[in-house]
Amino acid sequence: MEQYAIKGGSPLVGEVEIGGAKNAALPILAASVMTDETVYIDNIPDVRDTNVLLNAMENVGVMVKRTDRHKITINASNINSLVVEDDNIKKIRASYYLLGALLGKYKHAEVALPGGCDIGCRAIDQHIKGFRALGAEVCIEYGLIKASAGKLSGSHIYMDVVSVGATINIMMAATMAEGMTIIENAAKEPHVVDVANFLNSMGANIKGAGTDVIRIKGVSRLHSTEYTIIPDQIEAGTFMFAAAITKGDVMVKNVIPKHLESITAKLLEIGCEVEEADDCVRVVSSKPLVHTHVKTLPYPGFPTDMQPQITVALALSKGTSIVTESIFENRFKYVDELTRMGANIKVEGNTAIIDGVAKYTGASISAPDLRAGAALVLAALSAEGYTTVDDIRYIERGYEDFHLKLQSLGAQIELIETERDFQKFKLKTG
Ligand code: EPZ
Q1: Ligand 1 and 304: CB distance under 6 A
Q2: Residue 107 contacts residue 83 (beta carbons within 8 Å)
Q3: Ligand 1 neighbour 239 (Cβ under 6 A)
Q4: If you count Cβ atoms within 10 Å of the first and of the last residue's Cβ in the chain, which end, N or C, has fewer?
Q5: Burial class of residue 175 in the structure, from the number of CB atoms within 10 Å of its CB (0-12 exposed, 13-18 middle, 19+ buried)
């Protein structure tokens, strides 16, 4: 089983290039089946979740051609099944985007119930409510969500919770419904806007993405497009916090600084310097970090996908900090692992009360999910001594070449498989 071996203590210094946004790429890949014409997509991250989705699409007859590592050509004119249920697709959350896409185009879809990181109950009632409002019949049978409609008709849909997935899914289905759909209390995340821009580039008529009211005028067909996915806000934020946590100086390149405002604001509050340019941000951490409070919120609030990374930083910051997780109820599972590295954190319900410590020490730990796994790696990079991180398959779901990018910033991190590899790593870095 692959692990990361890490020797902590080196500040990360240098430049890192951010890839395309995983959470935009997933719905955009799914939406590319909504036309029979060929679609060209650039800046797709080469991570496990996008590859699982692409495999599932190939299994139902979609032609997928990788023209280079991040460029893909897709043609869905020969889809041979509207039932998507291979073993791997059950493991990713984004499988549900094929529901909205196939339902929109073919008025029928059956997709395995979504999996994804175990960070809370992750309901899908708002997706189902939206599809039903458009006129579909939806049921869950034999592990599949089945949605079917004679025709889809535009509707006025009020979302009871702000949901990225439901907003995007309803937007996709409504793109090919008859008439006007209005989604109120829509999610405003940059990836929601990116999916709307992608669909519009294929001939959809979507207005208001990025605000909490999205208006979609249905069209009968979509056409070919060439599209480049936006940079990954969370990968960028993770490297920004890597600089903060390791007392480093990192230029994070190929980003949209506007998408990083809430992350930048917190880094400034805890004592880092942040410089912004057109498409990069530099984070310098030269002073002792100080405490703050943070509550995760839908965009433009502080992202839940950055909660573990900021907690790792605050647990090294002077004073008492409070982190409130308001999106997912089970997103503090990594705190036990961080405690084994010396953190002083008490979790009560959805709140973590953190008393900053002077340092972490290396330990043998496991990644409980994608973002927490990445955050624990950052803790290990700042820790005294050696750490091994298990279950890195979670991290590989969403970070391309994570350890290689960290190495390029001077981190002492390697992929290992055996105890012998670990001993060799220790000899090399000792
Ligand atoms: C997306 O998940 C992301 N995943 C998550 O990223 C991210 O944490 C999350 O949005 C919030 O930003 C993908 O894009 C594939 P939601 P999603 O629907 O769509 C509740 C990562 O690390 N809810 O916005 O599943 C839900 O329980 C992953 O990259 C309902 O009640 O999140 C949660 O409390 C992890 N009913 C809240 O809404 C529903 O029908 C927000 O969930 C849908 C959601």
Answers
A1: yes
A2: no
A3: no
A4: C
A5: buried
Tally of domains in the chain? 2
pLDDT for residue 92: 83
Same domain, 52 and 167: yes
- Residue 427: per-residue pLDDT: 96
| Residue 280 is among the residues annotated as catalytic for this protein | no
Q: Are both 13 and 115 inside the same structural domain?
A: no
Q: Would you say residue 292 has pLDDT above 70?
A: yes
Does residue 397 line the site of ligand 1, with CB under 6 A? no
Between the CA of 116 and the centroid of ligand 1 the distance, in Å, is 10
187-227: per-residue pLDDT in tens? Answer: 999 999 999 999 999 999 999 999 999 999 999 999 999 99
Q: What is the pTM of this model?
A: 0.97
Is the minimum distance from the CB of 165 to ligand 1 under 6 angstroms?
yes
Q: What's the pLDDT score for residue 26? A: 97
Q: Which of 181, 209, 228 is the last residue of a domain?
A: 228
**Ligand 1 atom, smallest distance to 23 CA:** 14
Name the residue of 95, 122, 394 whose CB sits within 8 Å of the most ligand 1 atoms, as the mutation to test its pocket: 122
261 and 187 in a single domain? The answer is no
Q: Domain boundary at 208, 228, 248, which? A: 228
Give the number of residues written for the chain. Answer: 430
Domain of 423, in residue numbers = 3-19+231-429
Is-contact 391 366, C-beta < 8 A?
A: yes
> Which residues, in sequence order, are CB contacts of 116 under 8 Å at separation 6+?
91, 92, 93, 94, 122
CA dist., res. 396 & res. 369, Å (int): 10
Most informative mutation of 161, 331, 334 for ligand 1 (most atoms within 8 A of CB): 161
- Number of H helices and E strands in the chain, helices first, is 14, 24
- Please check whether residues 245 and 262 belong to one and the same domain: yes
Q: Kindly give the distance from the C-alpha atom of residue 122 to the centroid of ligand 1, in angstroms, as a whole number.
A: 7
Strands 320-324 and 293-295: parallel
Q: Is the domain of 202 the same as that of 283?
A: no
Domain shared by 185 and 89, yes or no: yes
* CA 232 from centre of chain: 8
Among 50, 93, 188, the mutation site with the greatest number of ligand 1 atoms within 8 A of its Cβ is: 93
Q: Does residue 164 line the site of ligand 1, with CB under 6 A?
A: yes
